UniProtKB/TrEMBL annotation, chains A, B:
UniProt-annotated location(s): Mitochondrion
UniProt KW keywords: Aminotransferase, Transferase
Name of a matching Pfam family: AAA_26
Single GO MF descriptor: adenosylmethionine-8-amino-7-oxononanoate transaminase activity
Designated name of the protein: Onanonoxo-7-onima-8-eninoihtemlysoneda
Keyword Protease: no
Lineage of origin: Eukaryota, Fungi, Dikarya, Ascomycota, Pezizomycotina
Highest taxon, organism lineage: Eukaryota
SUPFAM superfamilies cross-referenced by the UniProt entry: P-loop containing nucleoside triphosphate hydrolases, PLP-dependent transferases
UniProt GO cellular component terms: mitochondrion
Length: 814, 814
């Protein structure tokens, strides 16, 4: 099913009518507004849409509009016979899917806009949380359209409360309430209290006289009198100046919203300093304006909608968030459960300082994470705000532990990091220094790189086979490229560890370290790796055997690093503290709770961020073994770990993270990803010594990966978990990964540039553009890394949604 | 008014009964539960409290319980005669303040717990948002007690919606809903839908048979029959096993909550690695367990409540958040407007990646901040996650600008920072290196300090007078200590700039820089200062004349820094880019929108965090001039500013920040701080060349500061804005500020240690303990910095609340 666009048109002022409760007078209010619009000096064409109606009750509503607002164009989409709540009526009928209802509403409004209708109302059924046909509440069902809201308040006893609660339920879902209307009741005076309440929040409230009371239905004369009275009521109310003023206001708000969207790129270009962006040559046109987001999609402003003579052109276009918003998204944008969870924590705590205190979310999350990691080494959790700060903490931990054990004075000598080429651990200066230097680093005033970074073999599929590609200059040491039938067989370390390749890896790693330490006198303080995929370096898929071997050599040969080293240990840290940077790869990004589990390794320190909060807000955890923790234990307070941020372990972040982790673990437990797993398992050879639950899988289909691997323009690709990464051949026909190009200022900065660097392939950029502007009413927002284009799903992405995107890829590449 | 404690007792299981709407049957449900509890095998004593009741309607409720649950102890606190909503009834009567109502409820429940009552219900009036006597809604009014909730759902048409919305309104305010009850309606079947809904969220729902219908009131016989029918209804329902099961469940939840609180310190001690904390010697007892927070108060677990033979001992104690949660709090803990704002942003966007895109909150906040700063230099806003990362960005900006202008190659030469001693800019390694080294830094493996840090004169009050204290070793250069009658006169820079002191400052600063550059060959890349107060360094109140002069010398003498420097300029950066770290001092922390305004200076780069989000969650802005921005402009993408975090400009943070900024600016505009200002203005001499709106003020009373300045144990103190800082004499009788002690590892780490270092005074610690455990049912959670103890208010703190805390200080010190 194609995604639906946000419902916004320049010429058509459309609103959704929500009720604070059932029977608060939505239809009367709608009739007043439609009548008012018909009488408006601008002689508007008016539409009234009731997407889902149930039985005689709603039929009456329908007739009501027909009778009392005869000029209004009316439409219904789905009709249930029984006069009950749609979710009950629906039990006995073919149920339209929520997506179909949304598409129906969007299509209708588009046609109306095209037909010159200027004012439209879309009426909901019942109150804001009354269930729709599939059981989702009105507010959840219609959220992807995010129509601005006309809220009909409740004038009865108790109506203050239900009106405010309904308003809050709408707010939590990111709706903009443009006005509140309700009837005047001189006894309860809800409208007075609510007027103050809503005006304080910038929302005008209009109170209407009570409509004439309904007579008993049996009496025909009375009915006629009722009709007359009602007609007189509408006649008098609809032309009142405050109704006309309100309609002007609604129309102005619609125009202002569109104007604001159309001005935002220019204004942003004026005041925003973007991360990792060269602003020279950048124009306002290069900035995508995001109105809102839902599930996997942004609602993006279409600049061409401004001038379009075609009034039906919607202002917003659904755009697949192909970078998962810099790899953060897990549970979808605008997830109401996460919003509520965040709000609960804010309401219960706000923020509570976190030194010498504890609160439930910080504690529960720490305990849950330790349990979830199934790494017997991890005993302590340190909180910070993002992956970069969390890695700074990890580095401080690692250096202290090794300096303490080996008796080095870190303030006198340079203690270095052992890592991989193309690594990236964040943008603060301390961890920037833990990634390798480059030919361009003289441009950067603050870089003081310290370390040694191994080059390594990489995995990708091409021509239908999986390959381990060894860098040219390492072939002598590490052996030739290897070919495997399945990804599972590459991860069969139990078998591969006895291979020739493994022997060569071991010997190469060991002799390199020996040389660095013995000949160059280097002192290493920690081994740092992004397990499996080095993301920012260009989606480098490391041969797991190499990462495994590097860790094992480090741990089995502690004397490599210092003569003072105790004998190797398999339970305590040995050789060097091993730090896994799972900021990107952890917490189900690759389909598993930890990336370490692919390697069967237990790091001494692990850092998580990005998916930790399901994609909502910044939080980071650095987990460490009790042994590392003990390295800071001393009678001197000044020996403590010198790190902390004001919002350390902020309650909102911890609460949302706990909820996200639990949700993702529940999804794993209840087999939510079974369809994806089945797709990959069936494609795999049955053998490969892999337990079915350990099989590698991706939410991108195996068929897509195989088919694209034969495409002329594709040099190689892979998919694992939610990540799909495609390396394109560059125009010169010279394939080769990003690694074969000269390094830019810092390799990792490629992550952030939405373009290649001139000397890299422009093929990825070309594909990026084709995916952004398709022949369809939706597109893909993606990021490229040199000649690599990648797409990333959420863990909640639905197969049908991803297959839609895969279709675009196939069209572009096959 | 003394603050009220959270309502929690070990022996008493107390709940608050909220209604999804008016007339949903709260009283019937309460009667069922009270009856059930009376019949419970444990033969409970039961209490029913209706704090505020209105007229005959509620009298009927009262009689209802009396009649149908005769063993239940009943109590009302406030009674209004008219049968209308309390907020209307209250218009014609003396209105109890919300605080009085809360205290009344707490006192009653305490007494009941003391009397051995095991089960109590506190009934609200109307729905969750029905207004209380002062216009605040039920849910807002009772929030400080945070009683767990029994929610009575609505079984009528529309009741699904109103029940869920009511539930959401409670969640947003941090309430725990323990159960939902509602009547069975076989037609609408709300209970079925809602049971699924709530059980998914771990909340049991119990449906009750409908009570017998009420007969018309006029008929005495019918009334009697009604009574009988009702009695039979209660008889049959109350003894049902599911009611008894529910009561057991409620009781278990109460016990579990207390048990959890009592176990949390131990568990935290086991798994949490605290920031800036030496864990050796730390025990679980040193950890405060925070149940929740509201306004300026934590609700802290009282460990002694566990063993108390006194059943009335509450488990929670209100504790003033004296460090404003590490200086972050602005709009109070648990602020429902901020919760809603956060939820709205989460619902509308989740998180949206921020490179080449823009969304409304990020743009609006950027524009608002630029406007609010009234600094014509600032043109661009760069977002990051916390003060430390924002300062890293500022440093990268400053170094680039100066290297570009002066033709330095930052990768070859050390470019240094000019700053002040005792400065602190965050804990990431890059900005740690921008603060001065210390005698202990050999312990830190990663420190590579680069810069020169000026010592400077400090401000404090002692013996009723304001002093400028010049460091002993600088007296020769800077002149003697000075005395001023008012703080305003110290800030009268217009006058002071012509003083002898100013001349000496100028000449000292200029010659020092000359020596550093000419003789030592140092190259400086930026001037970095925390204007007015250097917080983490020990609440050092810098003489504004010194900071002003340092900036002016830097800007007026650019040739000091490089022969290539162009002539001085007053509009573009000159000499060095001037970076103000307003992370702590900005955004009304000192009573003004910017700390720079006290100095009348316009920095080239300004960093804000902490109060930016009103105290809710991490966000940071680094604002810079267009000129600094242009230093990164180049045809090379690799010349761009290399910085960015995944959650850069996250929508929740930006939306909350925009709301906070607007709220605080509105408070300023509408004179919310007038009482504080009046207190300080009246104490000031009327002259002092200060415009009234420029007068210095504090939310801590001038009288307190003056009185304490005579206290024997006080060496000096000051208050400005929301900050009160007291330097205590140490035990040896040797006064002197923190500055006179040897520097610890890094001076700034003192901020984080909740104790002195052995060689510093223990007086502050002693005072800290006295404030924590007072003779009152509430205490103060404070932080000390060596021999300095400080207290910090929110911008929303009420005078009567702060005077209460001042009373504790007076008791302890006078």
């Amino acid at each position: 099913m194609a995604p639906v666009g946000g419902a916004l048109w320049r010429q058509l002022c459309a609103h959704q009518v929500y009720g604070a409760n059932t029977n608060v007078g939505k239809t009367v209010v709608s009739t007043v507004l439609c009548n008012g619009a018909l009488r408006h000096p601008s002689a508007r064409k008016v539409g009234f849409l009731k997407p889902v109606s149930t039985g005689p009750l709603d039929e009456a509503d329908y007739r009501h509009i027909e009778r009392f607002s005869p000029g209004t164009l009316q439409k219904g989409l789905y009709q249930f016979d029984e006069p009950v709540s749609p979710h009950i009526a629906a039990q006995s009928k073919t149920i339209p899917k929520d997506d179909e209802i949304l598409t129906g509403v969007h299509t209708t409004l588009t046609k109306w806009a095209d037909d010159g209708i200027k004012f439209a109302l879309v009426e909901t059924a019942g109150g804001v949380h009354s269930p729709g046909p599939n059981g989702n509440s009105q507010a959840d069902l219609y959220r992807p359209l995010r129509l601005p809201v006309v809220l009909v308040g409740d004038s009865r006893l108790g109506g203050i409360s239900s009106s405010i609660s309904a308003f809050e339920s709408l707010l939590i879902r990111g709706y903009d309430v443009h006005t509140v209307l309700l009837f005047e009741d001189d006894y309860y005076k809800n409208h007075e209290y609510l007027r103050t309440y809503f005006e304080k929040r910038g929302i005008p409230l209009l109170s209407l006289p009570q409509p004439p009371e309904k007579p008993p239905v049996e009496d025909a004369d009375a009915l006629a009198r009722d009709e007359e009275a009602l007609a007189a009521y509408y006649e008098s109310v609809s032309k009142k100046s405050d109704i006309q003023g309100l309609l002007d206001d609604l129309s102005t708000k619609n125009t202002q919203r569109v104007d604001r969207l159309s001005s935002m790129a220019e204004r942003a270009h004026n005041v925003i300093w973007y991360p990792f962006t060269q602003h020279q040559g950048m124009t306002a046109k290069d900035i995508s304006v995001i109105d809102s987001a839902y599930d996997d999609y942004f609602q993006t402003y279409k600049p061409d909608s401004a001038q379009a003579s075609n009034a039906g052109a919607g202002v917003l276009k659904p755009t697949f968030d192909g970078s998962a918003s810099w790899w953060t998204q897990g549970l979808g944008h605008g997830n109401p459960e996460l919003s509520l969870t965040a709000a609960y924590a804010a309401g219960r705590y706000g923020h509570v300082m976190f030194a010498g205190t504890v609160h439930e979310p910080a504690l529960s999350l720490a305990e849950s994470l330790i349990k979830a990691h199934e790494n017997p080494r991890l005993g302590k959790v340190f909180y910070s705000d993002n992956g970069s700060t969390g890695m700074e903490v990890a580095v401080k931990m690692g250096l202290r532990a090794s300096c303490a054990r080996y008796g080095w004075d870190g303030s006198e000598e340079q203690i270095s990091i052992l890592g991989l080429k193309g690594s990236y651990h964040g943008d603060t200066i301390g961890v920037m220094d833990c990634s390798e230097p480059s030919t361009y680093n003289k441009k950067v005033e603050w870089y003081r790189g310290r370390g040694y970074w191994f080059d390594f073999p990489q995995i990708k599929m091409s021509q239908g086979m999986w390959h381990v590609e060894v860098p040219e200059e390492l072939k002598e040491a590490l052996g030739p490229n290897l070919e495997f039938p399945t990804l599972d067989s590459i991860f069969n370390l139990e078998e591969r560890v006895n291979s020739d390749a493994a022997k060569r890896y071991r010997s190469y790693i060991q002799s390199t370290i020996e040389d660095l330490v013995a000949k160059e006198g280097k002192k290493f303080g920690a081994l740092i790796m992004e397990p499996i995929i080095l993301g920012a370096g260009g989606m480098l898929f490391a041969d797991p055997l190499f990462q495994y071997t590097l860790t094992q050599v480090t741990r089995s040969n502690p004397q490599l690093f210092s003569p003072k080293a105790p004998s190797p240990s398999t339970t305590s840290w040995s050789g060097l503290p091993v730090i896994f940077d799972e900021v990107f790869t952890g917490l189900y990004r690759l389909g598993r709770r930890t990336a370490a589990s692919f390697l069967g390794l237990h790091p001494d320190i692990t850092v998580n961020a990005k998916l930790l909060t399901g994609g909502l807000l910044p939080l980071c955890t650095t987990m460490a073994s009790n042994e590392i923790f003990d390295a800071f234990s001393s009678p001197e307070k000044s020996d403590a770990l010198l790190h902390g941020h004001s919002y350390t372990a902020h309650a909102i972040g911890c609460t949302v993270a706990q909820k996200s982790l639990q949700t993702m673990m529940d999804m794993e437990q209840t087999g939510q990803w079974n369809p994806y797993q089945a797709d990959w398992t069936s494609a795999s050879s049955p053998a490969a010594h892999t337990k079915p639950e350990d099989a590698i899988w991706s939410s991108w289909s195996h068929g897509l990966v195989r088919d694209l691997s034969f495409a002329h323009s594709v040099e190689g690709l892979f998919a694992i978990g939610t990540v799909l990464s495609i390396t394109l051949r560059d125009e010169s026909g010279k394939g080769g990964s990003l690694r074969s190009f000269p390094l830019p200022t810092r390799r990792n900065y490629l992550r952030h540039f939405n373009s290649s660097l001139g000397y890299t392939s422009t093929a990825a950029q070309g594909l990026q553009k084709r995916l952004a502007v398709t022949g369809k009413p939706y597109g893909v927002h993606s990021r490229v890394l040199g000649n690599v284009i990648y797409l990333m799903a959420s863990v909640t992405s639905k197969p049908e949604s991803l297959r839609e995107i895969e279709g675009l890829l196939r069209e572009a590449l096959l």
